[in-house]
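Student: Hello, beginner here. Can you help me understand the protein record under this note? Any guidance would be welcome.
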Amino acid sequence: MLKRCIVSHGLLAKGMVDTLTLFLGEHQPYDYFCAFTGDNTDFVQQIEDYINTAAPNDIILFFTDILGGSVNKEISKFLYMPNIYILSGFNFPMLLQFAALQDTVDAIQLRLLTSCAKESIVYVNDFENARNST
């Protein structure tokens, strides 16, 4: 089974899941954890529990907000596990694309979808000017 989990500083992960629910419905495929929200929740323990409750053949995709940030660093400690993949710097189009994945994923798919997500970041002024000049 493919598990998808968004983890962020503050409530960003919760907001993303809320918006994904608007687009995909109540059965959107993401779990989430919010770190450093001031409620004294130990997000590292939450992540450990999440990983420990996964089946041995589950693949877990973690989406973190900032490469090199504390959330990313804590989750990176689990990269020794062959079923853990981490994608950092997520955006909404990226999460929509990854929601469509089936129950298996490989590094080639992850690289391709990450590349597509980067292309979704556009300076709209230039985009519209180019579109209107043709």
Q: What stands out?
A: The two ends are 46 Å apart (CA to CA). The chain has a mean pLDDT of 93.
